[in-house]
Design goal:
eight-stranded mixed β-sheet, binds nicotinamide-adenine-dinucleotide, alpha/beta, 2 domains, 291 residues
């Protein structure tokens, strides 16, 4: 079964770009958020992402109107009644996500695939907010930021996810140009567990005064071949979210994922990263790092 009609709930950094990659693959995408202003801002941001991608040769000029014409927006989840697959990308909060799933449960057609883009919440726990007969159609699809550039999707099956749901969702991701890997529903999945181990060591080096964030970023890029340094990446994903995920990892695995004091400090200081204009680095209003 090929998915043609998608819904995305949450038009923030992740949801809006998830909508974009499926629209670029020719799918009809309905993008939902809580306010018209949020949706307008998301569409404006997508237009800028497309302009910058066209300027850099990733897409052709004519891709832009085509992709944007395939994305419609709504503040009303009732409009999702004809969707074949829905991806949730609202705030990283069990209560908020559960409320969205409970609403979708009453609206979506039967056999609709339901996925969460959560970074760290157990997919089995989230599936509990759906009625029993929907749980086989529920799974995790963990995209990476920026979604239009990062090819990986972790496909996470919960305890009750069916083979059919996993196969259909995996195929839909491949259709959208992504490379899926299958991961069990362990806390942090695979990539964030490795990433947070690296980040914690990078944060320790800064705490010890051994290196500056700038030098660690240079070290990882030039010595390890990483395309982006750990502090640049922390600012991109948002330090607020990083701390939330770090706390969830600590709860699951204990001491080895203890969020570093310097990360707590930077979050308490309101330095979330690129979104707020300041994190480990400073950013201009277009999100470009200031030199
Ligand atoms: N930031 C990352 O790098 C990253 C990477 C992978 C996964 N994720 C996950 O993706 C999800 C979204 O993260 P983000 O960085 O895009 O967050 P974000 O804050 O940029 O966007 C969240 C959006 O959800 C909307 N929202 C909140 N409640 C809603 C509701 N009830 N109905 C509809 N919309 C609602 C908000 O208005 C906002 O626009 C989180 O679960 C996060 O853990 C984030």
């Amino acid at each position: 079964m090929s998915i043609e009609k998608l819904g995305v709930v949450g038009a923030g950094m992740m949801g809006s770009e998830i909508a974009l990659v499926f629209a670029m693959a020719g799918k009809s995408v309905l993008l939902a958020d809580t306010s018209e202003e949020g949706l307008n801002a998301a569409v404006k941001k997508l237009s800028e992402v497309l302009d910058s991608g066209i300027a850099r040769g990733f897409w052709a000029e004519e891709d832009k109107p085509l992709a944007l014409s395939r994305i419609t927006t709504t503040t009303n989840l009732e409009d999702f009644s004809d969707r074949e697959m829905v991806i949730e990308a609202v705030f990283e909060d069990v209560a908020i996500k559960s409320e969205v799933f409970a609403k979708l449960d009453k609206i979506l057609p039967s056999a609709c695939i339901i996925a969460s883009n959560t970074s760290s919440i157990s997919i089995t726990v989230l599936s509990a907010s759906l009625s029993d007969d929907r749980q086989a159609d529920f799974l995790g699809l963990h995209f990476f930021s920026p979604v239009h550039r990062m090819k990986l999707v972790e496909v996470i099956s919960a305890m009750d996810t069916s083979q059919r749901a996993t196969e259909v969702a995996t195929e839909a991701c491949i259709d959208a140009g992504k490379v899926p890997i299958q991961v069990k529903d362990v806390v942090g999945f695979a990539v964030n567990r490795m990433l947070f181990a690296l980040w914690n060591e990078a944060l320790r080096l800064v705490e010890e005064g051994a290196c500056t964030p700038e030098d660690i970023d240079i070290g990882c890029k030039l010595g390890l071949g990483h395309p982006v340094g750990p502090f640049e990446l922390m600012d991109l994903t948002s330090n607020t979210l990083n701390l939330q995920v770090g706390e969830i990892l600590q709860e699951a695995y204990g001491e080895r994922f203890l969020p570093r004091p310097i990360l707590k400090q930077i979050v308490a200081a309101g330095r979330a990263g690129r979104k707020t204009g300041r994190g480990w680095y400073r950013y201009d209003e277009k999100g470009r790092q200031k030199k």
